Amino acid sequence: MKGIILAGGSGTRLYPITEGISKQLMPIYDKPMVFYPISVLMLADIRDILVITTPNDQASFQKLLGDGSQFGVNLSYAVQPQPRGLADAFIVGEEFLNGEACAMVLGDNIFYGNGFTQLLSRARANAEAGYATNFGFRVHDPERFGIMEVDDAGNILSVEEKPAAPKSNFAVTGLYFYPAGISELAKQVKPSDRGEIEISTLNDLYLQAGKLKGELLGGGFCWFDTGTFDSQMDAAVMIRALETNQSRVIACLEQIAFDRGWITREQLVERAELCRKNKYGEFLTKVLEGAK
After folding, report:
1. Poorest-confidence range of 7-16, 33-42, 93-102, 281-290?
2. What are the CA-CA distances from residue 165 to residues 147, 161, 168 (Å)?
3. Burial class (CB in 10 A: 0-12, 13-18, 19+), 122
């Protein structure tokens, strides 16, 4: 299975900052925003990852992430010349996917919660069995979101955009798993009135075929769409509190890779030395000491 991180867009809600830098490269407490979606794919045991950026930002992502070997993954890059909708990512990434099942996570989404790895594993198994999966998060104001209705078997019954009378409190997040052939299906989606290839239309094709599953992130989970200054601050405060209280680093790519045997001890030592002047490096040193 392969993974896609969609890190395009102009980030106009974050001007003037994002006039000079991609929002996905901005810090969320102690690491770049893009580390968080990368960690999601890694927790799903996905190592082949395509990062889709704007033409202007690709070099900056490559400078930060390189080929991904320091994190035990294989990173490729592609450009989305202009925003054409979320589902366009599967057309841009068609050659990379090569017909395989995949997961896509938006570059500004942050997920955290106990048992998340198990949910990712189930979504991966569903994709490999021919089913798509959307992740839903419980919100208190469902009329502001796209809302999914899910039965007891985990099948999505309906998805409504900003409904006046919501059938549930679970908002559709920016994390999706799809079976093989997603690129061909995406090419069948006609652009909407705003000229975009909508992922909601793509999901509806799976819904009509009875092939759309839902994984619900309820109590104990956190989800942030960090596309505004306030949401970035909220996420940073949460991450800081959790890391301080738990004496750990959330979305630590090196730890995930080391625990899975994707990088060597020597590689981890190198990364710990690089970050030795801050708590991120201190944590990597603790990981090393704990593995003795």
Report:
1. 7-16
2. 10, 11, 9
3. middle
Distance of alpha carbon 121 from alpha carbon 275, whole angstroms? 31
The predicted-structure confidence for 125-150, as pLDDT tens digits, reads as follows 999 999 999 999 998 888 888 899 99
> How do strand 221-225 and strand 146-150 relate by DSSP bridges?
unpaired
Helices marked H in the chain:
35-43, 58-65, 89-92, 94-97, 116-128, 182-186, 199-208, 229-246, 253-259, 265-274, 279-290
Contact between 53 and 11 (Cβ < 8 Å): no
Instruction: Identify the pLDDT of residue 7.
Output: 93
Cis before residue 16, ω within 30 degrees of 0?
A: yes
CB atoms within 10 A of CB 118: 11
* Stated length of the chain: 292
C-alpha to C-alpha distances, 6 to 38, 109, 128, nearest whole angstrom: 11, 10, 21
Closest CA to 198 of 89, 279, 272, 66: 89
- Give 112's strand partners: 222
269-273 own/partner pairs: CB under 8 Å, 24+ apart: 270/70, 271/70
pLDDT at residue 82, rounded to an integer:
84
- Report which of 192, 233, 220, 257 is spatially closest to residue 49, judged by C-alpha positions: 257
Pick 127 or 198 by higher pLDDT: 127
